[in-house]
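Continuing from the previous page...

OK, I double-checked the sequence for DUF6381 family protein against my notes and this is the correct one:
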Amino acid sequence: MSESDELRSRVQQMRAKAKDLKDEAERAADPDERRRLKEKARRIESESEQVSGMASGDIYPMK
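Thanks. Re-ran it with the corrected sequence; updated structure tokens here:
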């Protein structure tokens, strides 16, 4: 598996994890837990965008 394939796979895993966290946040009864899960999902999505940029050869990570 090439490095770009590994990065793409990592991006897919990160996006799936972020989706799972969002889904879990929607089911959370506690507002603090919901907020925590949504923030964690946002961080993972942001990181996945940066990794995606690296996989596509973009030298400037997305902000």
